[in-house]
Amino acid sequence: MLSSTAKNLYWMGRYLHRAKNTARVLESTQRMALQSGASEAGTVADIYALRTEFFARHPQGTLDDLVDFMTLDDTNPSSLVSTVRAARNNARAERNNLTVDVWESLNALWLDVATQTRLPRAAVDRGALLEMVTKQTTMIAGATQSTLLRDDAYCFLQIGSYLERADNTTRVLDVKFHRLCPDGDPQHGSADYYEWSEILACVGAVRTYRRIYRSRIEPTRVAELMVLRRDLPRSVHHCLWQVDLSMRELAETYGTRGEADRQAGALHAHVRYARIEDVFEAGLRPYLEDLGLRMAQLSDEIGRQFLFE
C-alpha cells in the first residue's frame, strides 16, 4: 500500500472520531448546564488544549461561545466543521478503498454540516447539529464495520480511530476528574451524582456503569471503567487492545515488525496489567499524562514507520 493511502485512511479515522468525541462532550456539557446552571466552558476548552485560543476570541467565555467555537468556527482545527471536512477530504482521496455505504454516509455528513455553516449563526440549531453529528458518525462507524474488507486499509483506519478514541477518553477523564477532585484523591472530591454521570456520558457509559457495578457512582470506579475495563468500547484499555491487534495484522501482512509494533504492544500491556489501586497510589494525573505522552509517541512512530511523516 502507498504511504499516502495509509496516511489518508489513518487520518480519516482520527478526524471522524474527533468529531464524534467533540459532539458527545458538548452534548453532555449542555445537559449538565441545564441541570446545575454552571458553565464548564473553560473545562471543555482544557480538554482540547484550547483555553488560550478560546478566551482570546471569546473573553466572556460563555457556554454558547464555547459551542460556537467548537462547532462552526472554521479557524479552530478541532471544531466540528474542520474535523468533518478533513475526514471527508481524506476519504475522497481513497474512495477506491471505501465502500459506497461508507463514502456516501460520510459525504452526507459533510453536506449537512456545510449547510449549517452557510446559515446565519443565529439561525443554527446547535443542539440539533450536535445530535446529527453524533448519530451520523455512529452510522459511518457501523457501515465501516459491516461493509469494509478486512485488509491493510481497514487496519490503518482502525488504528487512527482507536488512537483518537483513547486519547479523548484520557483527556476527558483527566480534566473532569481533577475538576471534581482537585488533589486527585477521590475521597476528598465532589460526590455529586450528576457531575460524575456527566463524565460517564462523555463516553456513553452511564447505563454501562450501572450494569457493571450496580451501586452509586464512585470516582474510583469511574476511573477504572474508563481506563482499565477492556469490555467497554471507549475505554483506554479496549482502544489500545484494538490498536495492538491492528498492528499485528499489518505485521502479518507485510512480514515485518518495527518500533511502532513494539510500542503498541508495550502500551497495551501497560494498561492490561494495571490495577486501579496502583494507579491511584502513584497518582491518576501522572498516570494519564504518561498514557497521553506514550500514545503521542506511538502516533509519531506510526507516522515514521508507515506514513513517511
Automatic annotation (TrEMBL):
<feature type="domain" description="DUF403">
    <location>
        <begin position="1"/>
        <end position="307"/>
    </location>
</feature>
<dbReference type="Pfam" id="PF04168">
    <property type="entry name" value="Alpha-E"/>
</dbReference>
<dbReference type="InterPro" id="IPR051680">
    <property type="entry name" value="ATP-dep_Glu-Cys_Ligase-2"/>
</dbReference>
<protein>
    <submittedName>
        <fullName>Alpha-E domain-containing protein</fullName>
    </submittedName>
</protein>
<dbReference type="InterPro" id="IPR007296">
    <property type="entry name" value="DUF403"/>
</dbReference>
